[in-house]
Write a structure and sequence with these properties.
alpha/beta; Rossmann fold; transferase; nicotinate-nucleotide adenylyltransferase activity; ATP binding
């Protein structure tokens, strides 16, 4: 008996402080490459690996909602924002997998920088039991792990066949050929605080909201 699922879906987490085209455009390119039906954005509340966001959780959620309001590929999930503890990916994936069932093809989108440090993540060994990993290219990052055991792990799970991702619920790593956009939220925040215009890298509706809320004006 074949299972009925909703096509390949993917999760994409981040602080989105603020959300910008460096988040959205590589993911849109990846969606075309692998046939993603839906991308679920997961704004983090307490990110374990980086400083706390400048914008409040409600402001970051509003910016994400504005950025994707006319794009049917994207939706947003607020479960990590509703936590007061660190947002560990494996815990989010476990709860989503319970909701979706064992047969739904599910992927988690990360950058090449995150892939190369994934063995420092809490519970990373269980990630491929819950999902596939889709990796976006990042400017200036190596293609391979320095650690031989991690390179073996990558080799074991890597596939170049996007079709496999929608035929299996989890277990593969796919290295996407995505645009190399050297846009960082840190640089955007610095630019906004010094009065620079960032209109080319932030959706217009998000830029309008940033101005209305007087965000990143230190």
């Amino acid at each position: 008996m074949t299972f009925k699922h909703k096509g390949l879906q993917a999760l994409f987490g981040g602080t989105f402080d603020p959300i910008h085209y460096g988040h959205l455009r590589p993911v849109e390119a990846l969606a075309k490459q692998v046939g993603l039906q839906k991308v679920i954005l997961l704004p983090n509340h307490v990110p374990p690996h980086r400083p706390q966001p400048e914008a409040s959780p409600s402001q970051r959620l509003e910016m994400v909602s504005l950025a994707i309001e006319n794009n049917p590929l994207f939706t947003v999930d607020t479960r990590e924002l509703e936590r007061n503890s660190p947002s560990y990916t494996i815990e989010t994936l476990t709860s989503l997998r319970q909701e979706m069932g064992p047969d739904q093809p599910l992927a988690f989108i990360i950058g090449q920088d995150s892939l190369l440090s994934i063995h420092t993540w809490y519970g990373w060994e269980q990630l491929l039991d819950k999902c596939h990993l889709l990796v976006c290219s990042r400017p200036g990052y190596a293609a391979n792990f320095k650690e031989s055991q991690m390179q073996e792990w990558l080799k074991k799970h890597k596939t170049d066949d996007a079709y496999k991702l929608s035929q299996s619920p989890n277990g593969y790593i796919f290295l996407g050929d995505t645009p190399l956009l050297d846009i960082s939220a840190t640089e955007i925040r610095k630019g906004l605080s010094s009065g620079s215009l960032c209109d080319e890298v932030i959706p217009t509706s998000v830029m309008t909201y940033i101005k209305q809320q007087h965000l990143y004006q230190n």
